[in-house]
Amino acid sequence: MSGNYCIGLDLGTTSAKAVIFQFNGKVKSEAERLITTYYPESGWVEQDPNEIESFAVKAIKDAMDEAKIQKDEVKVIGISCAMHSLICVDQDGNPLSNALIWSDGRSSQQAESFSEKERQDLFLKTGVPIHPMTPFTKLVWMKETAFEPYKRARYFMSVKEFILFRWFGERVVDYSMASATGLFTPSKLEWDETAIEITQIEENQLSEVVPPTYVLNGLDKKVADGMGLLSDIPVVIGAADGQLANLGIGAILPGEVAITVGTSGAVRQFSKGVRINEKRETFSYAFTDEYSIIGGPSNNGGIALQWLKELLNNQDSYSEFIEKAGKVTAGAEGLIFHPYINGERAPIWNQRATGNFSGLSITHKQEHFIRAVLEGITFNLYQIERALCRLAGEPSRIYVNGGLARSNLWLQMLADIFGKEVYVAETHHSSAWGAAWTSLVAIGEVNSFEEIKNNIQLGEPIVPNEKTHRAYQEIYEEYMKRSRI
Fold first, then answer.
1. pTM above 0.90, yes or no
2. Which of 102, 310, 351, 483 has its CA 20 to 30 A from that of 20?
3. Which residues contact 364 (CB under 8 A, 6 or more apart)?
4. Is the confidence at residue 411, as pLDDT, over 60?
5. Is the pLDDT of residue 430 over 50?
């Protein structure tokens, strides 16, 4: 098949996004369909798998219409997907349940019921802390509550697996999505017998595990027509959104750390082989048979800033709101914020954790609170990064993407707290570009994952202020001392 374009399909928790790229990473067009999230009970968070599949097709069609290119000009599709979703599926690929997404907390009680030894033993094999986000604990909840779709299910799948099963009739899952389940041993690249036994499912109810360069052929013609593409277009399974965000921003070599801060946040780094943090502060997910990714996700990124803005009934734009923090020096004059307002994953893995302000004084004003919240978010990310350092050494470069990366004030704060130069990619489609690049590697259009660095435009680095960095080291020590966790 001839063609000059590739598509990155990014299935996130908020939207299905399709981006058409030239092979050098330049965006030809993009389209996005927002996914509906349902909250049927307190702590339950679900999405409709059929809606997500439909929106994936429509997003690609919208992008094709905007690009105004011919069907045969698109050579390949690569897929990125958010981790930790779980769907009960019947023999024919019909969903018996909604997709329980990462933020679904219904299995909190089950996650807390494991002994310390069980937690450590499972973590050392799977690289995933026991937490309500994982399909492992969701399956335990289904078993213990006799969840009807669980009892009737023939298969258990993530959103990506479900869609590929519908489109191709194949049950396959890539290494990283399998790793994120808590049911997989990344060092062996196989399903974990102990975890599966605890959930009382059978291994054949899970998909075949394949590398991120696995190619699917024979796209359902009706689906292809709905996308505006040829049915013989190869589709590459890709990986999880976190791994592909690192790839798409260029943070792929030793010492290169990627930080993403949108509503939530994450710190990630590629590593040769599988490295397990025995303190259970971080995860370790396989990417290829040679490389894994280590890191930690935070529940509390921009959502903490949004909460404060609403609490203060502030009517400014977000950029104006953030800029108010510039009126205050580092440390917000003694006001410290621990950002666990939405529970927390890394590095404390405590869904019942609560946030707090400490050091409050009558002299503190709105701008002090804004700065304290920004610093609290960033200190939490720094704490995750310190855990990664114990596994992989000091970082040489920090790459940043996500909503907060549009704030120069926050980027400087990040550089000052971490004490490293910070690089921001000009594209905000890192996961989609990572997926598209993986697809190009898979079909032999490019030679390696590393070559993506030649196709990413980075701005000038944000350089840390050494004096401010030294001040922040002392403030961080105080932040850790005041932590109640």
1. yes
2. 102
3. 332, 333, 335
4. yes
5. yes
CA angle (455 as vertex; 302, 285 as ends), nearest 5: 55
Separation CA 241–CA 261 (nearest Å): 13
Neighbouring CB atoms inside 10 A of 39's CB total: 11
- Nearest alpha carbon to residue 295 among 368, 376, 395: 395
> Is residue 266 helix, strand or coil?
strand
Mean pLDDT value across residues 251-273: 94
d(CA 357, CA 363): 14
The two beta strands, 356-358 and 336-338, are antiparallel
CATH architecture label of 251-424+447-485: 2-Layer Sandwich (3.30)
pLDDT in tens, 439-451: 999 999 999 999 9
Q: What is the DSSP string of 89-131?
A: E-TTS-BSS-EE-TT--TTHHHHHTS-HHHHHHHHHHHS----
Q: How confident is the model at residue 428 (pLDDT cuts 50, 70, 90)?
A: confident
Q: Where in the chain is the domain with CATH 3.30.420.40?
A: 5-242, 251-424+447-485
User: Tell me: the pLDDT tens digits for 119-128?
Assistant: 999 999 999 9
Instruction: Tell whether the model's pLDDT for residue 484 goes beyond 90.
Output: no
Backbone angles phi, psi at 187, to 5 degrees: -70, -25
CA angle, residues 182, 78, 443, in degrees to nearest 5 = 115
- Buried b / exposed e along 262-285 (16+ C-beta atoms within 10 A): bbbbbbbbbbeebbbbeebbbbbb
Report the top-level CATH class of 5-242.
Answer: alpha beta
Please check whether residue 236 is in contact with residue 439, taking contact to mean a CB–CB distance below 8 angstroms. yes
**CA angle at 95 for the pair 93 and 99, rounded to the nearest 5°:** 125
Asked if 86 contacts 139 with a C-beta cutoff of 8 angstroms, the reply is yes
Per-residue tokens: 473: 């080291």
